[in-house]
UniProtKB/TrEMBL annotation:
Any single GO CC term annotated in Swiss-Prot or TrEMBL for this entry: mitochondrial matrix
Keywords tagged on the record: Mitochondrion
Pfam families: BolA
Binding partners and assembly: Interacts with NFU1.
InterPro entries assigned: BolA, BolA-like_sf, Mt_Fe-S_assembly_factor
Record-stated family: Belongs to the BolA/IbaG family.
Name this protein carries in UniProt: BolA-like protein 3
Subcellular location field: Mitochondrion
Biological role: Acts as a mitochondrial iron-sulfur (Fe-S) cluster assembly factor that facilitates (Fe-S) cluster insertion into a subset of mitochondrial proteins. Probably acts together with NFU1.
Primary residence: mitochondrion
Length: 115
């Protein structure tokens, strides 16, 4: 938890520097270059791509300042068709059951493609 606290403190300092230099901060999170993902984001995205190969959209964001304690997942897949939201979320939770054990929290947003 100390490492996460340090990471959050570091994120706050970085945010203040960005604001001073008039760069953009988005929804309370620092906007990173598109090519920069944390190891946790990459690992979770790979797991979800494997579990939901029909996913038309997938976004994984570490919302804990980079320490991996909390993630936000947006996933759109035809595999969710006909399932209630709670069932869709249960599928995502099941896919990430090993990863979730090391997390503080997880925000999940699921949808079915609208073609």
């Amino acid at each position: 938890m100390l490492a996460c606290s340090r990471s959050l403190n570091s994120a706050v300092v970085s945010a203040l520097r960005l604001l001073r230099s008039n760069q953009t901060a988005v929804t309370g999170q620092l906007q990173r270059p598109l090519s920069t993902q944390t190891d946790g984001e990459v690992r979770i995205a790979e797991i979800l791509k494997e579990k939901f190969p029909a996913a038309s959209s997938l976004k994984v964001v570490d919302i804990s300042g980079g320490c991996g304690a909390m993630y936000e997942i947006h996933i759109e897949s035809s595999e969710f068709k006909g399932k209630r939201t709670v069932q869709q979320h249960q599928l995502v939770n099941q896919a990430l059951k090993d990863e979730i054990q090391n997390m503080h929290g997880l925000r999940i947003f699921t949808d079915v493609p609208k073609h």
